[in-house]
Specification:
Helix 1 crosses helix 6. The chain contains 6 helices and 11 strands. The strands form 3 sheets. It has a 7-stranded mixed sheet, with helices on one face. A two-stranded antiparallel ribbon has the order 1-2. The chain has 2 domains: 121 residues, Rossmann fold, CATH 3.40.50; 94 residues, Rossmann fold. By secondary structure, the chain is of the alpha/beta class. The chain binds 5-O-phosphono-beta-D-ribofuranosylamine (GRF). The site of 5-O-phosphono-beta-D-ribofuranosylamine has 12 residues, from helix 1, strand 7 and helix 6.
């Protein structure tokens, strides 16, 4: 749907900013972070941002329904239709490029992004992880958190590099871990914070306020 052409691109250190930023959101599941991004933009919190497409590797991901409801193109790419990850991601890049994507937002996308996508969109891919990275990267993060017995957890928005949840950190938010927490109650408390800081990080990116210096992300006021 989005055929908006990116105009007036300027480069700020490692990030590219444009007067109209096209976002692509990659999802695999329920899409509550996609929804918070949609709401944040629809409520006028970010100027000149447009979610052009939501792309899923899961056909019946509820996130795709959320996208359609808001007039956003919803695309399913069937990973099993490709011989390998490189071919699958070749198709992914083709679709991202066709939407003039400026920034890729991973929102519960359950695949490790490969090096071709990362180099095509260097420092233009964000992810959110439901722990205070570098603690408890990877899968089953709430279980890892509870099993380890930490008293504070939270969530982290970071740039995506080739590792698993290892990219430079943009924003983090803390929540307490309570005595009687289950994975569900902890996840609910953290999700509330995710829905706050992820849109804020996207806004900072779009406003050109993030500068990546090695592992460090400088956030300007
Ligand atoms: C969130 O907890 C996020 O931190 C993690 O995957 C989950 C996605 O949830 N990466 P949703 O699909 O956005 O509701």
């Amino acid at each position: 749907m989005s055929t908006t052409t990116t105009t007036n691109s300027t480069t700020n250190a490692n990030t590219t900013i444009s007067t109209n930023t096209n976002l692509a959101v990659l999802v695999s599941g329920r899409g509550s972070n996609l929804q918070s991004m949609i709401d944040y933009i629809e409520n006028g919190n970010i100027e000149n941002a447009n979610i052009g497409v939501a792309i899923s590797d899961v056909a019946d991901a509820y996130a795709l329904k959320r996208a359609k409801k808001h007039g956003i193109d919803a695309v399913f790419i069937d990973p099993t239709a490709f011989g390998n990850k490189i071919e699958y991601e070749h198709e992914l890049i083709k679709i991202l490029d066709s939407y003039d994507t400026d920034l890729i937002i991973l929102a519960g996308y359950m695949r490790i992004v490969g090096k071709n996508v990362i180099s095509a969109y260097k420092n233009r891919i964000l992810n959110i992880h439901p722990t205070l990275l570098p603690s408890f990267a990877g899968l089953h993060s709430h279980k890892q958190t509870l099993d380890y017995g930490v008293k504070v957890s939270g969530c982290t928005v970071h740039f995506v590099d080739e590792g698993m949840d290892t990219g430079p950190i943009i924003l983090q938010s803390c929540v307490p871990v309570l005595e009687n927490d289950t994975e569900d109650t902890l996840s609910e408390r953290i999700l509330e914070q995710e829905h706050k800081i992820y849109p804020q990080a996207v806004k900072l990116f779009i406003e050109g306020k993030l500068k990546v210096e090695g592992r460090i992300v400088r956030v300007s006021k």
